[in-house]
Amino acid sequence: MTVSKEDARALEHRADRAAERLAEAKGSIRKTIIGLDEVVERALAVILSGGHGLLVGAPGLAKTKLVHTLAVVTGLDDKRVQFTPDLMPADILGSEVLEESEGGKRAFRFLPGPVFCRLLMADEINRASPRTQAALLQAMQEGFVTVAGARHDLPRPFHVLATQNPIEQEGTYPLPEAQLDRFLMQIDVPYPSREDERAILLATTGVEEAQSHTVLSAEEILDLQTLVRAMPVGEETLNAVLALLERARPDTSPDGEVKDGVAWGPGPRAGQALMLAVRARALLQGRLAPSSADVAALAEPVLKHRMALTFAAKADGLKLETLIARLAAEAA
């Protein structure tokens, strides 16, 4: 598609202005979240891409605080659902109640659940039953829910940031592949470095604690999401995405390790996610167009939860992270 010089200049101006606003947003987040710059950037990329994110990390690594801080800074109203084995779909989506008017007429009224917000935190999502996990599928993919046969639209934008504890697996239900595929990225939250932990201790154990402030709004987020989709992607970057997907699928990969060690690979939704995510990363870093380096940087969080190793490959010590990093380097 050919873009006129005027349109190109207008797009560049929008991108420059957006980069300034996003830099301000990241600065506000850093007041509260210390030492997780890459995690914050990836979480913002998820929102700018219009998708959902799965935050995976041990307890106490500020996953909940990060989601709330993102809600404050982006201006998105948020709600939190603590997932437990006894949680029912109606506890998330809402339900209909029978009411009687003063005239004696009875009618059902829909009471919306916590999913009716712009940023939903699904805390410890793998602790709920598969039935309750599945209740989020329609909301995440379609942007509306169906209760008692009636459609109820969710506000826009709508994002789910779910958390998961990778250590304690007792009493949990692994997320089905169909739901994992709905998450644009799996974002691993690491332990802080010694220097970052020192800063955290000093910042959070005093009399006062710095607070993030609102920078963006829901309307501005929607505009940024439109801008991300309008950003150009060069042939080199597009070919890097296509090559990576081809190499990651056992049916089409020329790599023997993938053919023998990968049970199933990423589908087309992974390519869509990667195309949006690399644009968002470029915008967050003040660039108008993504590069193959962005593809390599985001290959793991986009593909990791969309691939599975065979039992034999796991027994031989093969790691998905190592495999994806090698494939991304070869595709770039």
TrEMBL record:
Signal peptide (from-to): none
Pfam families according to UniProt: AAA_3 (PF07726), AAA_lid_2 (PF17863)
SUPFAM superfamilies listed in its UniProt record: P-loop containing nucleoside triphosphate hydrolases
Transmembrane residue ranges: none
GO molecular function: ATP binding; ATP hydrolysis activity
Segments forming domain ATPase AAA-3: 52-185
Record domain ChlI/MoxR AAA lid: where: 260-317
Protein name (database record): MoxR family ATPase
Higher taxonomy: Bacteria, Pseudomonadati, Pseudomonadota, Alphaproteobacteria, Maricaulales
